[in-house]
Design goal:
alpha/beta, UDP-N-acetylmuramoyl-L-alanine:D-glutamate ligase, four-stranded mixed β-sheet, about 300 residues, 13 strands, homodimer
Chain lengths: ~300, ~300
């Protein structure tokens, strides 16, 4: 089955303590779609300006990513500029230029409307609502978000939670959104607003997946000695997760077992993504490497050796 | 087999955002010995003053804890007073009174000297050296430490690393000691100084265990909604871990498989410990509850459901 992904497509300028690169392919939908495409076909919804480099279009097209929902309009592509501090965990936004994104209204091509798995990648909650207004009855809807929307669009985000099966956010955002320091309580508070499942990403500390009736899964992060660019880690996680769900929903229900596997592969995709700037690592990684790393991750979290 | 535990025995005054309790049993050896005693007999080395309440002595004696190495001397018991902030992760020491601890010289009774497993619980590295000077050839030596000793006794601690099989410390301490932000690199840097194994505790994020030749285990923390008092979590972890190693070393080598299991039970003991002030929860928990929680923790970190 396919996954519908709506989100941002951006050109990023990124500075880390080790390097600085301008004009990189970025955006939640770019990372999410390429990550998902390792597991399932993707229907992409997004917007870029006429300045968007053809090579990026070609990259997306070369994967199983349908671009009928990609609007290419007059004007400049959304731009984001950020800088990572020495610990690679703290990030400062240096500038944002919305450009064509300012008046973006996601419009779903007719054949996208019945996509069974929907990933509302990180964009304004109002736009995420707008996408859900256009779809039929998807089997599973996942929403990603960020601190910005908790700060400036909390009401819309809260209403969105009543419309999705799963929310993905990081630990700081879960605390910020709920006012709960304890992550177990924070997850329960989010679930009370609608989503049956909550995934709380903790960066180098892995990810917690909360389901119903005490279902709980703790997935470690793959231990990396070098992180070259954390940008898009969360988006790759969400994309990989959604792609696996789309693949698995061919053969069974979207239950906690499927979500466990989806979280594992999301974590693996995120771990590859941070090994290079932009989507450079996702461009070169292959299915065998992804399988290998998921096996390693499994061994690393097993209580007993086989 | 038995485990030898040397560390501090204290009377603590503890304040959390929810409650304040004076005059509690505390200290690294108290927590460590009681935690270890669930799995193996303990030979305890420590010092208290004449003011040390008899009920605490009785508690230790009621477990499999040999007290021949406990010095009871004229003067007052070591006292520590601390306060936890709202997130229960940040802690401020309000006061320290060394009292009888100031001139403590650990002296091992003759029958302690061949204890096969040694836990140098958190005390000054010089005292940890002094204990190692008195033992024969233990099968496995574990050292715990804290930020204070990295600050004021780094040379002695560094020398100690050449004499131990395993170091336990938390993530902040690993970064502080090595100057490496990345925990994988920090663990490698510590291993280069001596210990074959390093356990990095990450509180609510679980624990990372590093061995040789890429051996690696990521153990989740048991998800708790309420943490009443974090004091002694690390000491209970170290004690539980050492106790399991002592139990397992009857039947096989102290290898990475045994250490995985030891880290799991250490984590379980720490999770019980923080459910109440002082050793109150460790006093009431029983073997079946410990087994149950270790099974739950295993289920929570399994990639596939059974």
């Amino acid at each position: 089955m396919s996954v519908l992904i709506v989100g941002s497509i951006a050109l990023d300028d990124i500075k880390t303590p080790a390097a600085e690169h301008p004009n990189l392919l970025g955006g939640s939908a770019s990372y999410g779609a390429v990550a998902a495409s390792f597991f399932s076909p993707v229907n992409l919804v997004g917007i870029v300006g006429e300045d968007f480099p053809k090579e990026h279009i070609e990259l997306l097209r070369s994967r199983r990513i349908d671009l009928e929902g990609l609007q290419i309009v007059a004007g400049k592509t959304f731009r984001w500029s950020g800088e990572y501090m020495l610990d690679m965990n703290t990030r400062e936004t240096r500038s944002v230029e919305l450009n064509v994104f300012e008046h973006f209204t996601p419009a779903l091509p007719a054949n996208y409307k019945s996509t069974p798995i929907v990933l509302l990648a990180n964009i304004a909650p109002d736009l995420q609502h707008h996408v859900l207004d256009q779809v039929g009855k998807p089997r599973f809807v996942i929403a990603d978000t960020m601190d910005l929307w908790i700060n400036i669009a909390k009401d819309s985000l809260t209403r969105l939670l009543g419309r999705v099966d799963m929310l993905i956010l990081n630990d700081g955002e879960a605390r910020q959104f709920t006012g709960e320091t304890n992550l177990v309580k924070a997850a329960r508070a989010i679930q009370a607003l609608g989503p049956k499942y909550v995934a709380i990403k903790k960066g180098e500390h892995g990810c917690l997946l909360f389901g119903s009736d005490g279902e709980f899964f703790s997935c470690p992060a793959f231990p990396l000695e070098e992180i070259h660019d954390p940008t898009g880690a969360g988006d790759s996680f969400a994309g990989g997760l959604a792609g696996v769900l789309a693949r698995e929903s061919d053969s069974g229900p979207v239950d906690f077992g499927a979500l466990r596997r989806a979280v594992v592969f999301g974590s693996v995709l995120a771990s590859f993504n941070v090994e290079a700037f932009s989507l450079e690592r996702l461009k070169t990684v292959d299915a065998a490497q992804i399988e290998d790393r998921s096996r390693l991750l499994r061994l690393m979290s097993q209580f007993e050796t086989d």
